[in-house]
Amino acid sequence: MPPTIDVLIVTTRARELVLSCLDHLARQTVPHTIYVADNAGNEDGTTDAVRERFPEVRITTMSENRGFGKAMNELASQGSGEIVVLANDDMDVEPQFLEQILWPPEPALHAQLPGANYARQLFDGQYF
């Protein structure tokens, strides 16, 4: 069974960008849980739009802009994934994005994804 994956996204007044990002993440080929922090208190309707279009996404509406790092820490504290992926709200990823973090298609990719390489070692001290 593959490890569980949490995808964390912080957004600030970027409703259309984050909706596009979530559209692309919905097409992933491996299971995952998405956590979004609306760092602008729903000023542009981001929270409402995410809840309407992506009810499975766990969204936190910050009462004030706490900054990227604090918002990410808040999301990380909510998750329980064995692998945590930090994504920007303007990322439109290919369907195999998360799958390739788990199982890169070529050994050379390990050099390009050192975080994913390290995460794999954490599970049992071996690559899977």
CATH T-level topology = Spore Coat Polysaccharide Biosynthesis Protein SpsA, Chain A
Rg result = 15 Å
The unreliable regions are 116-128
Straight-line N-to-C gap: 11 Å
Instruction: Label the overall shape.
Output: globular
Quick check: average pLDDT? 87
Looking at CATH, the homologous superfamily is Spore Coat Polysaccharide Biosynthesis Protein SpsA, Chain A
Largest sheet: 4 strands, parallel
Biggest sheet strand line-up? 3-2-1-4
* Helicity level: 25-40%
Order of helices and strands: EHEHEHEHHH
Broad CATH class? Alpha Beta
Number of domains: 1
Strand content: 15-25%
Structural class: alpha/beta
Number of strands: 4
CATH architecture: Alpha-Beta Complex
Top keywords for this entry?
Spore Coat Polysaccharide Biosynthesis Protein SpsA, Chain A; 40% helix; single chain; alpha/beta; 128 residues
Description:
The chain has 128 residues and is an alpha/beta fold. The protein has a single domain (5-95), classed as Spore Coat Polysaccharide Biosynthesis Protein SpsA, Chain A (Alpha-Beta Complex). It is 40% helix and 18% strand. The chain contains 6 helices and 4 strands, in the order E-H-E-H-E-H-E-H-H-H. Strands 3-2-1-4 form a 4-stranded parallel sheet, with helices on both faces. Helix 2 links the parallel strand 2 and strand 3. The relative contact order is 0.22.
Write the layout of secondary structure elements.
Elements: E1 5-11, H1 15-25, E2 33-38, H2 46-53, E3 58-61, H3 68-78, E4 83-88, H4 97-102, H5 109-112, H6 114-124
Parallel strand pairs: 1-2, 1-4, 2-3
